[in-house]
Amino acid sequence: MDMTFLLQLLINGLVVGSIYSLVAVGFVIIYKATSALNLAQGEFLMVGAYICLDLLSKHNIPFVQSLLITLAFSALLGLIVERLILRPLIGSHLISVIMVTLGLSSILKALVQLAYGTDTIPFPEVFPSAPVQIGPIPVSQGYIYSIACVTILVTILTLFFKYSKTGVAMRATASNQQVSLSMGISVKKMFAISWAISAIVSAVGGILLGTIRGGIDMSLSFMGLKVLPVVILGGLDSILGAIVGGVIIGVLENLSGGYVDPMVGGGAKEVAPYIALILILMFKPYGLFGKKKIERV
């Protein structure tokens, strides 16, 4: 029974951690391109989940089509935010950009609350409900599909950044904007693409969370802040770090919730990621895979 319980916690942690990784990748993509943290990442996730829910429930559009429309909407949202809100701030102090994204998060939350209210709305059943037996543990097919979706999307992003012309240009922009400009790369275009991709991966994370939870509400917006320890743990500029950090935090949360919470009366699940973050940063100040920056004076 103890081993079964442990395996169940590990599987749950892996599923949640994979979604953390996906949202963290959105953070990293924007940070690598613009050196700014997008504090509205959780709201991008929430908006994507609500749009997909609306298409499925109110308009009875099949899931695949609803997903594609949601991703297109999210990409457009990312492009609009970058063009109208962030682009005028190019050259501004970093704190100004961060504060603007914080204000954007409040605006998106208010709009979603105005449109859908604050009550939890059931998410339509997308994946088959019958569990799959893996060894001694029955595992929800939603969990399996979620991990598969995250794996496929992360693989596509990795190949995109490594082999596509646009992906290489984005990496060059992230490395050195001045050199990229001198080579004819449109830095503004790379910024826009970064925001679009970030919004897309966040929307996928929101949809997967909705299917796993069986419903969505305003609490999805806090996922952005919840994923921050993942981003910092893995290294702000490392996609691999975001993936590894997400899995670590997801598994750690579930193990703490299963074993430590009953002993201390609760709360350990929420605190454990930050304790792990502090301990790791004591030895790896730039995160597990972050690049150490050396300034010459």
Written overview of the protein:
The chain is mostly helical and 297 residues long. The chain has one domain (2-283): ABC transporter involved in vitamin B12 uptake, BtuC (Orthogonal Bundle), CATH 1.10.3470. Helix content is 73%, strand content 3%. It has helices at 2-34, 41-57, 63-86, 94-116, 141-163, 165-175, 177-182, 187-213, 223-234, 239-264, 268-283; strands at residues 121-122, 132-134, 137-139, 215-216. A two-stranded antiparallel ribbon has the order 1-4. β2 (132-134) and β3 form a beta hairpin.
Secondary structure layout:
Elements lengths: L1 H33 L6 H17 L5 H24 L7 H23 L4 E2 L9 E3 L2 E3 L1 H23 L1 H11 L1 H6 L4 H27 L1 E2 L6 H12 L4 H26 L3 H16 L14
Antiparallel strand pairs: 1-4, 2-3
Helix pairs in contact: 1-5, 1-6, 1-8, 1-9, 1-10, 2-3, 2-4, 2-8, 3-8, 5-6, 5-8, 6-8, 9-10, 9-11, 10-11
Summarize the structure.
With 297 residues, the chain is mainly α. The chain has helices at 2-34, 41-57, 63-86, 94-116, 141-163, 165-175, 177-182, 187-213, 223-234, 239-264, 268-283; strands at 121-122, 132-134, 137-139, 215-216.
> Can you give the mean pLDDT?
85
CATH architecture: Orthogonal Bundle
Outline: globular
Radius of gyration (CA) equals 19 Å
Helix content: over 70%
Oligomer: single chain
Which labels suit this protein?
single chain, ABC transporter involved in vitamin B12 uptake, BtuC, two-stranded antiparallel ribbon
